[in-house]
Backbone:
């Protein structure tokens, strides 16, 4: 990490606060040993008990990325759970992601359901975020995926949602100025109200009170991060999935979505100078999966080469139904941040503080 994270702080030894948070708050409480296995057995038992007599014990949101694909294997083949797989199609699937979802689900004998987000509404919200000038233009896609998953669990009366989130590859979080909270419906609606043109009738939304209080404490629907309770190393997991499921790898984490590939590989990098690989590599360095020298060497090159970046720029503009010149005008527009629009940032920050205090989460955005 560097000072493109404007809130970064270094101590007298040059160690940043991201690393100090990992050593102080995450590593001492993150167990993949016998303690973790015991915790895993307990949560698996609870999931099976809650799913007793039902067709499915849990639901897995599967993007086609490595984390969710490996999670599906772990849940079904290793833990004997009965997951129902949901794939949310926002209109930006890549051939690799479609292949990975279909082949993994078929090999494991799982049922796959796909939720297709209305494209005209998806497109309109994404264009509104481009026009707003904020960095986090991927928020509409993430918001739709999260909201669809929560609604899916409620509809099917499934009490456990298994998520591929994990400390092994994600112990360092993106700074909030790079990627604001994706589930803030107040900000999404405010930006869309100012810049959108289509009324949102089908676009799934959520809000922090609904998914952080109502769902877990009233409907008793819980998110579970099984990958935090088992040894999980990205290179070994990828090798296993390639050899056993014909999994197709991506050049970078999160590139299973073409829009996210454009967003993280070009838009954030070129327009704002934010390189999400710094966050991803920092996580791998702290968890012993990459050397700092290797990371620094990789960072000497841009995430996407110039020819690929230009191709993606044109492809995304075409998909959104705008000209390359209009896309370039958004690229050249004044910078804005989440602070320039209505939000629930205070609620999120208070909730994050309370969850860390209660031991319900480790680390977190600042």
Residues:
């Amino acid at each position: 990490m560097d000072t493109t994270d404007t809130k970064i702080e270094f101590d007298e030894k040059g160690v940043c606060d991201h690393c100090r948070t990992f050593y102080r708050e995450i590593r001492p409480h993150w167990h993949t040993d016998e303690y973790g296995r015991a915790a895993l057995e307990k949560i698996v038992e609870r999931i099976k008990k809650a799913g007793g007599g039902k067709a499915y014990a849990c639901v897995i949101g599967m993007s086609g990325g490595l984390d969710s694909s490996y999670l599906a294997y772990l849940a079904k083949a290793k833990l004997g759970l009965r997951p129902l797989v949901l794939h949310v199609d926002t209109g930006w699937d890549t051939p690799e992601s479609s292949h990975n979802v279909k082949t993994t689900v078929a090999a494991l004998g799982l049922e796959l359901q796909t939720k297709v987000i209305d494209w005209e509404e998806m497109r309109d919200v994404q264009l509104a975020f481009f026009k707003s000038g904020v960095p986090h233009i991927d928020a509409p896609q993430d918001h739709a995926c999260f909201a669809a998953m929560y609604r899916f669990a409620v509809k099917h009366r499934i009490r456990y949602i298994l998520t591929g989130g994990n400390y092994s590859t994600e112990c360092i979080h993106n700074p909030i100025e790079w990627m604001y909270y994706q589930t803030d419906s107040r900000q999404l609606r405010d930006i869309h109200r100012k810049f959108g043109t289509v009324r949102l009738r089908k676009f799934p939304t959520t809000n922090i009170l609904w998914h952080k209080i109502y769902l877990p404490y009233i409907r008793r629907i819980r998110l579970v991060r099984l990958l935090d309770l088992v040894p999980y190393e990205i290179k070994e997991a990828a090798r296993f999935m390639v050899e056993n499921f014909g999994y197709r790898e991506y050049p970078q984490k999160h590139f299973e979505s073409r829009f996210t590939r454009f967003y993280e590989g070009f838009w954030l990098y070129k327009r704002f100078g934010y390189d999400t690989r710094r966050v991803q590599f920092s996580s791998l360095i702290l968890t012993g999966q990459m050397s700092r020298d290797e990371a620094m060497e990789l960072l000497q090159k841009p995430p996407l080469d110039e020819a690929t970046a230009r191709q993606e720029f044109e492809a995304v503009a075409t998909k959104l139904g705008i000209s390359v010149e209009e896309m370039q005008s958004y690229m050249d527009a004044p910078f804005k941040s989440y602070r320039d629009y209505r939000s629930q940032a205070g609620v999120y920050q208070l909730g994050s503080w309370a969850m860390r205090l209660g031991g319900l989460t480790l680390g977190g955005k600042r």
The radius of gyration is 20 Å. The chain has 16 helices and five strands.
